[in-house]
């Protein structure tokens, strides 16, 4: 029979694994931009925002970032501010490490046979495999720096808002602290990454317009995710035992409040 401490440690490892995997994957696939409307079988929105016609063209990383939101809130609930900060710094380190490794592999000279064996697509059109590899994985330095800065800042803001709301509501109103902290942190994330990555490339007004479009998506997703937050809590409560889970949550809140 596992002790409560063993279950708690195993829970942190599982949540951390989910968080790290999805955070790193979201950064890697984020280079692809897709149409949110067409994915749902809808016509482009053509929203007029600050004089610009905007559609919901989103980074592919947005597909799995909701998993990061949920996992972050669960870590926040049961392991408090120290747990979220620890895993956020670790994620930022691994994301940076991943980009360094990718940059090194881009610099490796391609083998000629590899280029020749992969130089035609399904329709028989010629393409340069090495160029495609470099183009897909080689994100710009400003985008990487902006993404990392926005990730860390939004995570720290998320844990701060979450614990402030936890202090006000106690163990009740889970939806408020989970959704509220995500809405605030993702507002910051939406604009920080854009300003660092594209300031001087796009006008300030256009950056704000893009940020508003992205935030509308993130706002909608945060609301829709609320039932999954409750599902996550239900599963964890079943695993730890409801009384044990409540005790761990209260201890995490008390520890976090002493650090605020």
Description:
With 260 residues, this protein is mainly α. The protein has one domain. It has helices at residues 4-29, 36-39, 65-106, 112-117, 129-137, 141-169, 174-198, 204-224, 226-240, 242-259, and strands at 33-35, 47-49, 52-54, 57-59. A two-stranded antiparallel sheet has the order 1-4. A hairpin with a 2-residue loop joins strand 2 (47-49) and strand 3. Helix 3 (65-106) runs antiparallel to helix 6 (141-169), helix 6 (141-169) runs antiparallel to helix 7 (174-198) and helix 9 (226-240) crosses helix 10. The mean pLDDT is 87.
Which labels suit this protein?
globular; 4 strands; 10 helices; two-stranded antiparallel sheet; two-stranded antiparallel ribbon; 260 residues; single chain; mainly alpha
**Could you report the average pLDDT, rounded to the nearest whole number?**
87
Span between termini: 36 Å
Structural class: mainly alpha
Low-confidence segments: none
Question: Order of strands in the sheet with the most strands?
Answer: 1-4
Helix content: over 70%
- DSSP, total strands: 4
Q: What Rg is obtained from the alpha carbons, in whole angstroms?
A: 21 Å
* Count of discrete domains: 1
Give me the number of helical elements: 10
Concise overview:
The chain has helices at residues 4-29, 36-39, 65-106, 112-117, 129-137, 141-169, 174-198, 204-224, 226-240, 242-259; strands at 33-35, 47-49, 52-54, 57-59. With 260 residues, it is mainly α. The protein has one domain (4-255).
